[in-house]
């Protein structure tokens, strides 16, 4: 039997450190998710107008490090390593324990004096919109720059003091390939999974398979577009920065509204899921009654710091995996319809209702929303050249799981499947009651715990927009900004207004959930409007604007996305 590598043995200090590193990476991803929204409303100015910060593909050649390339002394070096300013090159770092999925990183040379003002890599790589190229040496006829390994004293630089001052952040990533892959999958998989069987019921087998594969592909394609743009310019830090570069500073307000609308829709869906799940467990009271009672928990949690709330997102991952397992176990364990994988329920091959098809557009697309944080995840990778490979795997896994649950649920319950497949688990005889009750309780606790995490960036963005909070310039700054507990209790006008605003968002989320109780309608709106605009239309439009040309594929994709978004949004409103 093959033994585990000595660098990662179960129960060893190395394995414990690896788990802690993975958890820390996931919590950092939650800060990036929140920070991507907050940063979008923080600056109306155009950061790309500063001539001293000009990093055009041609102009930056004058500031690139001239280095002698020397082969690594050992075979476990890695490509794509950044070169840093000379004074910051040899900053000592604490080596991390090796992860089973991580690359081995050669240690930095010995410590030297460091200039605190120079912390930014001078080298960057211009990266394709669909493929991350292997780094190579800069040339007069190429604007792709080589990330040169450390070359010791032979390094020489010609970077100007002005460009060094213009670069504020350390762009070195912290997450390995495996950590970023886990974070990406965790962000993609969520409550949208529960409505996948209904999406198949509305679209039929033929169109259902086509839509889930098509949306998975185009979402992966546009994620690479965003990563290509963000990694081609060291000044860009967030989705909003890409919008400002492509469309100008006036796009900031539009992006901010879209982000806030998406977060608010998710908060409404969380309230609906919590109440519907609790109603299935305890039908003595209506879902609306449970929504009102939920305010007892929801309102206090909105004042908790993000440093604490980021841990609650781990519960969401556990509940997602647990629900997947329970659905499959239920389907296999029962031999008779309904609710059996061995005896399929009545299903449809084609489309029965064109309005339902529009809702299916949104239900399928809602599962692939998450592009707001894609640029930050790309920046957070220790080796961004591996982003394309990583995001391919992330969308393959997410598409497979969504397809698996959608097909299994549709086979088990057919055209009579509920808006949330979890609601069918308790009312169907022949299942393990204890197992299904545990799954439903997870769907009660998880939305309650994730509500505050979802509304935290929404609240901060609103407070920045109305002028009662200070802005941030990049998603990474949110950790320091929100690490401390909320001090709204301090007697001041802004403090009081902040408390009122947070409570108002919680009340409004519950009110909208009561007015629009259909889980499928809320999910369809989230997918048809927010997901299509932010995940497909926005990235493709940015690519066209920056390249100043529109390819055939991009033009067709843009037209199809606009039609599907309009169709799905109208169908969602009719359903509501």
Automatic annotation (TrEMBL):
Compositionally biased intervals (Basic and acidic residues): 111-120
Ranges of residues in domain Amino acid transporter transmembrane: 175-546
GO terms of molecular function: L-amino acid transmembrane transporter activity
UniProt keyword terms in alphabetical order: Amino-acid transport, Membrane, Transmembrane, Transmembrane helix, Transport
Disordered: annotated span: 36-75, 92-120
InterPro entries attached to this UniProt entry: AA_transpt_TM
Compartments, as annotated in UniProt: Membrane
Entry's transmembrane regions: 181-203, 209-231, 252-275, 290-309, 314-333, 353-378, 390-413, 433-453, 499-516, 522-540, 552-573
Family, similarity comment: Belongs to the amino acid/polyamine transporter 2 family.
Acidic residues bias: start-end ranges: 43-65
Bilayer topology term: Multi-pass membrane protein
Name recorded for this polypeptide: Aa-trans domain-containing protein
Pfam families for the chain: Aa_trans (PF01490)
Source organism: Favolaschia claudopus
GO CC annotation terms, alphabetical: vacuolar membrane
């Amino acid at each position: 039997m093959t033994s585990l590598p000595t660098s990662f043995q179960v129960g060893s200090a190395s394995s414990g450190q690896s788990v802690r590193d993975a958890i820390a990476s996931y919590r950092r991803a939650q800060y990036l998710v929140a920070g991507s929204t907050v940063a979008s409303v923080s600056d109306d100015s155009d950061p790309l107008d500063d001539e001293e910060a000009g990093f055009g593909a041609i102009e930056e050649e004058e500031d690139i490090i001239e280095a002698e390339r020397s082969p690594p002394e050992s075979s476990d070096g890695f490509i794509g390593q950044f070169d840093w300013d000379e004074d910051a090159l040899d900053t000592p770092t604490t080596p991390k324990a090796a992860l089973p999925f991580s690359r081995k990183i050669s240690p930095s040379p010995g410590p030297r004096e460091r200039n605190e003002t120079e912390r930014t890599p001078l080298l960057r790589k211009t990266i394709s919109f669909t493929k991350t190229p292997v780094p190579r040496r800069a040339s007069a006829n190429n604007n792709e720059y080589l990330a040169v390994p450390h070359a010791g004293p032979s390094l020489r630089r010609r970077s100007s003091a002005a460009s060094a001052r213009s670069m504020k952040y350390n762009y070195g990533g912290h997450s390995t390939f495996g950590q970023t892959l886990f974070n990406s999958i965790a962000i993609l998989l969520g409550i949208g999974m529960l409505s996948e069987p209904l999406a198949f019921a509305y679209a039929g087998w033929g169109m259902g398979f086509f839509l889930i594969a098509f949306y998975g592909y185009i979402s992966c394609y546009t994620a690479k577009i965003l990563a290509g743009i963000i990694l081609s310019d060291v000044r860009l830090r967030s989705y909003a920065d890409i919008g400002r570069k492509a469309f100008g500073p006036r796009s900031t307000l539009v992006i901010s509204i879209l982000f806030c609308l998406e977060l608010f829709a998710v908060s409404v869906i969380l309230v609906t899921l919590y109440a519907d799940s609790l109603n299935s467990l305890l039908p003595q009271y209506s879902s609306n009654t449970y929504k009102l009672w939920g305010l007892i928990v929801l309102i206090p949690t909105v004042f908790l710091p993000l440093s604490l709330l980021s841990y609650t997102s781990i519960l969401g991952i556990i509940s997602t995996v647990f629900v997947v397992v329970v659905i499959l176990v239920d389907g296999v364990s029962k031999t008779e319809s309904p609710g059996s994988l061995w005896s399929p329920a009545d299903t449809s091959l084609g489309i029965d209702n064109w309005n339902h098809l529009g809702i299916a557009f949104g239900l399928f697309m809602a599962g692939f929303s998450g592009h707001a944080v894609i640029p930050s995840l790309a920046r957070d990778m220790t080796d961004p050249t591996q982003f394309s490979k990583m995001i391919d795997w992330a969308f393959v896994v997410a598409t497979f799981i969504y397809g698996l649950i959608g097909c299994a649920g549709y086979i088990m319950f057919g055209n009579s499947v509920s808006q949330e497949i979890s609601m069918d688990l308790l009312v169907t005889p022949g299942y393990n009651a204890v197992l299904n009750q545990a799954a439903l309780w997870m769907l009660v606790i998880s939305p309650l715990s994730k509500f505050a995490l979802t509304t935290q960036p929404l609240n901060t963005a609103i407070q920045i927009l109305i002028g009662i909070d200070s802005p941030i310039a990049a998603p990474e700054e949110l950790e320091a900004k929100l690490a401390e507990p909320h001090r709204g209790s301090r007697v001041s006008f802004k403090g009081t207004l902040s408390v009122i605003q947070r409570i108002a968002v919680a009340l409004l989320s519950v009110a909208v959930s009561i007015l629009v109780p259909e889980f499928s309608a809320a999910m369809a709106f989230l997918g048809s409007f927010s997901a299509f605009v932010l995940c497909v239309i926005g990235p493709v439009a940015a690519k066209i604007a920056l390249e100043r040309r529109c390819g055939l594929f991009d033009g067709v994709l843009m037209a199809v996305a606009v039609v599907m978004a309009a169709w799905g949004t109208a169908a969602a409103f009719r359903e509501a």
